[in-house]
Amino acid sequence: LGERELSPRTRAVISLMAPALLAGLVTTGVAGDRWRTVDPALLVALTAVPLLRRFRLPLPAVLVAAALLATAVRGLTT
User: Fold this and answer.
1) Domain ranges of the chain
2) Alpha carbon distance, N-terminus to C-terminus of the chain
């Protein structure tokens, strides 16, 4: 694009591409081949991360909370 300045909307779309691609990779990694090997504990933890970040918790606290949730769910399902 040379020296041209991108519009704010275009920059916003470009900035969301990396998280969207990462989410796709994580989803296929968690769900496995054709969603046969879904790990409920991992799904709970992955769902908790954006919810906890919404409350502006620091990332280390979010990661610890997600790990604790995954451990709790694994304990309940085994």
Assistant:
1) 8-77
2) 55
